[in-house]
């Protein structure tokens, strides 16, 4: 069996590695447009439940992944400088995206996957001689775009803007720091991914964008603005840019995940929102599910149907939860103004989607709930 994969990101490379290891006799070719050492962004979070799934799927790669993953402490939520710790569950870990990709490339080489870099696939028909063509080519997937009606692709654009930076800062936990400015609201999502580096995703709502004059600023000026606004969180350090443009997030989802012998995985099949869970982990779980389906049967239509049945229902729920989550962020200024202090605000944040109610927060974060009840007199919104 010959499998061609467009995209050498986490989903494409992890699928390729697992497929060569677990499916005897398959030939796997990954086509990646970038150089092996090119990547956008800094570190990515791999939350606890996802790490357990990677461990169950393949112990060898998991051990090596663990070696480059920085464990994260409890989440922290800061409202205009007042911090609340969400004590309870461990959060998992974070890894530098470039190191993750290098590890996955190494693993692929060890099991005999062919990976060609600088290989930009513009016409996917060139790969159609393969038994299976996988679109692991990310949020702007070429495979998906060439048959968007067949896949039933939908997308939207959010009103909040964001940019992904790094910063040299020692830190030990995932943090969300909300600040009011310019008549609107900002949120810095940050977490460490090595002992000295943090990812900083900066986000602002439409009111802040307009009130702070971001529309007429350059990206350098916007970076200087948020460096000043978040000087405390940054310990006075500068933000580091890596093609860090301010953009509006574009969620994507598909009614159908397959088209003939073509299938989508990872961000190509759904891009929910970075506030709802780690896209890298979800992408790698797609890879596990597709390999498992092919292990059950080499009949491609049957294997693809099994893959879709195992992943799509949960993905559809995730898209719904992501919508609730990003709608909350688009309205974050109002939530900040209405909150009765940082605990009340943090509780409102944790329960922003219908997936999590007060009982779930109490079960997952008992110490937080006790502190929250004491701080608010039991009167959370
Ligand atoms: C602001 C922000 C913060 C994020 N934070 C996190 C986080 O903390 N944790 C997390 O897990 N995830 C995070 N993500 C999401 C994460 O980056 C993605 O969900 C994840 O990388 C998806 O993996 P993938 O393999 O599906 O796609 P990608 O990582 O996008 O990989 C796709 C690959 O395909 C290649 N490609 C594309 N088109 C072609 C073509 N035509 N020919 C050849 N190659 C092609 C690209 O070069 C790329 O290497 C974040 C995303 C954003 C925007």
Give an overview in words:
This protein has 381 residues and is an alpha/beta fold. The chain has a domain at 2-40 and 97-156 and 250-326: 3-Layer(bba) Sandwich (FAD/NAD(P)-binding domain), CATH 3.50.50.60. The chain is 41% helix and 23% strand. The protein has 14 helices and 19 strands. The chain has helices at residues 10-22, 48-57, 59-67, 97-111, 142-146, 148-151, 206-211, 219-229, 279-296, 300-330, 332-338, 342-350, 358-364, 366-376; strands spanning 2-6, 27-31, 43-47, 70-71, 75-79, 82-86, 92-96, 114-116, 132-135, 153-155, 161-168, 175-181, 184-192, 197-204, 247-248, 252-254, 258-259, 262-264, 270-271. Strands 6-5-12-13-14-11-15 form a 7-stranded mixed sheet. Strands 8-2-1-9-18-17 form a 6-stranded mixed sheet. Helix 1 runs parallel beside helix 4 (97-111), helix 1 (10-22) runs parallel beside helix 9 (279-296) and helix 2 (48-57) crosses helix 3. The model has no long low-confidence stretch (mean pLDDT 94). It binds flavin-adenine dinucleotide (FAD).
SSE topology sketch:
Blueprint: E1 2-6, H1 10-22, E2 27-31, E3 43-47, H2 48-57, H3 59-67, E4 70-71, E5 75-79, E6 82-86, E7 92-96, H4 97-111, E8 114-116, E9 132-135, H5 142-146, H6 148-151, E10 153-155, E11 161-168, E12 175-181, E13 184-192, E14 197-204, H7 206-211, H8 219-229, E15 247-248, E16 252-254, E17 258-259, E18 262-264, E19 270-271, H9 279-296, H10 300-330, H11 332-338, H12 342-350, H13 358-364, H14 366-376
Parallel strand pairs: 1-2, 1-9, 2-8, 5-12, 9-18
Antiparallel strand pairs: 3-7, 4-7, 5-6, 10-16, 11-14, 11-15, 12-13, 13-14, 16-19, 17-18
């Amino acid at each position: 069996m010959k499998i061609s994969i467009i995209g050498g990101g986490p989903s494409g490379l992890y699928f390729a590695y697992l497929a060569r290891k677990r499916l005897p006799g398959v030939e796997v070719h990954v086509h990646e447009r970038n150089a092996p050492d090119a990547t956008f962004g800094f570190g990515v979070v791999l939350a606890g439940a996802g790490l357990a799934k990677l461990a169950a799927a393949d112990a060898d790669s998991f051990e090596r992944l663990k070696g480059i993953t920085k464990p994260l402490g409890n989440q922290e939520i800061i409202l205009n400088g007042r911090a609340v710790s969400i004590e309870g569950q461990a959060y998992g870990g974070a890894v530098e995206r470039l190191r993750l990709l290098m590890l996955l490339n190494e693993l692929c080489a060890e099991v005999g996957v062919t990976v060609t870099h600088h290989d930009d696939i513009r016409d996917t028909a060139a790969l159609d001689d393969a038994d299976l063509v996988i679109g692991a080519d990310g949020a702007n997937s070429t495979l998906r775009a060439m048959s968007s009606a067949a896949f039933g692709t939908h997308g939207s654009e959010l009103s909040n803007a964001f940019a992904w930076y790094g910063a040299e800062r020692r830190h030990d936990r995932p943090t969300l720091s909300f600040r009011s400015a310019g008549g609107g609201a900002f949120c810095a999502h940050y977490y460490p991914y090595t002992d000295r580096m943090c990812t900083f995703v900066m986000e602002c709502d439409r009111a802040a964008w307009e009130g702070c004059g971001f529309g007429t600023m350059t990206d350098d000026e916007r970076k200087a603005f948020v460096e000043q606004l978040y000087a405390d969180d940054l310990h006075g350090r500068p933000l580091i840019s890596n093609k860090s443009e301010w953009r509006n997030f574009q969620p994507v989802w598909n009614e159908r995940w397959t088209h003939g012998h073509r299938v989508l995985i990872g961000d190509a099949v759904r891009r929910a929102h970075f506030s709802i869970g780690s896209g890298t982990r979800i992408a790698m779980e797609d890879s596990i599910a597709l390999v498992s389906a092919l292990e059950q049967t080499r009949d491609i239509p049957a294997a693809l149907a099994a893959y879709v049945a195992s992943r799509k229902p949960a993905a559809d729920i995730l898209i719904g939860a992501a919508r609730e989550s990003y709608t909350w962020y688009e309205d974050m200024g109002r939530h900040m103004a209405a909150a009765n202090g940082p605990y009340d605000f943090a509780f409102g944040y944790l329960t922003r989607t219908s997936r999590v109610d007060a009982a779930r927060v109490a079960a997952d974060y008992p110490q937080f709930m006790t502190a929250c009840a004491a701080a608010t007199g039991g009167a959370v919104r």
